[in-house]
Amino acid sequence: MEILDSQERKEVYGLAICKYENSGNLYRFSSDKNWESPQDGPYGTVEDAIRLLPDQYKNVEADWQEI
Predict the structure, then answer these.
(1) Which of 16, 33, 49, 53 has the CB geometry, 3.0–4.6 Å to 28, for a possible disulfide?
(2) Is beta strand 2-5 parallel, antiparallel or unpaired with respect to 8-11?
(3) Is residue 67 part of a domain?
(4) What residues contact residue 47 under an 8 Å CB cut-off, 6+ apart?
(5) Residue whose C-alpha is closest to residue 14's, from 67, 23, 25
(6) Where does the source fall among the domains of life (predicted)?
(7) What's the Cα-to-Cα distance from 1 to each of 24, 55, 59, 60, 66, rounded to whole Å?
């Protein structure tokens, strides 16, 4: 996958949904091959974080795992 950020293409290798201990929000992160996160966004539920994926991720098979 590739995302466009400031005219620079970045490949996305993974998505993660995480929650900080002292936060009520969940965050969906996209990451590059080094697990650096060029993009994130807050969501109220895991279901919203998955349902509201940007269009470029809609046709990608995902194997979501809870850890």
Answers:
(1) 49
(2) antiparallel
(3) no
(4) none
(5) 67
(6) Bacteria
(7) 29, 11, 10, 9, 22
Tokens at 36, concatenated: 């650096």
| Global confidence as pTM | 0.65
Angle among Cα 14, 42, 54 to the nearest 5 degrees reads 50
In-domain check, residue 32: yes
Task: Using DSSP, state whether 58 is helix, strand or coil.
Answer: coil
Tens digits of residue pLDDT in 24-67: 889 988 888 888 887 788 899 999 988 888 777 777 777 788 87
**How many CB atoms neighbour CB 28 within 10 A?**
22
Record the tokens describing residue 43, joined without a space: 């969501």
How many C-beta neighbours within 10 Å does residue 12 have? Answer: 19
- The tally of domains found in the chain comes to 1
Q: How far is CA 60 from the centre of its chain?
A: 13
